[in-house]
Prior knowledge:
Elements: E1 5-6, H1 12-17, E2 23-28, H2 33-48, E3 54-59, H3 65-69, E4 77-82, E5 85-91, H4 96-108
Amino acid sequence: MAAPEAVGDSDFQSKVLEAPTPVLVDFWAEWCGPCKMIAPIVDELAEEYDGRVGFAKVDVDANPMTPGQFGIRGIPTLLVFKDGAEVGRIVGFRPKSDLAAALDQALNGA
């Protein structure tokens, strides 16, 4: 069963930026209502894209350096990385189809 992996400031480089596949990173916090609403959607996508896309979650309260590095101003914010570069950004709660479109775009190189 594929599931998003908890990633922090100390391992973001190795787990996300150096990943061999695109990675969707969910920046979230325990107190964030919309984050809790989007979490099941991210879990579903992790299953559907298993083996093709990596999934990570960064707790912004426990890991303040990484969100600052990427200009995260509000949560939930989901970034898609490919070959170490940000190739997609989704801010706020959005439907599953929007997240899937960002992943498909990263996979297809568009």
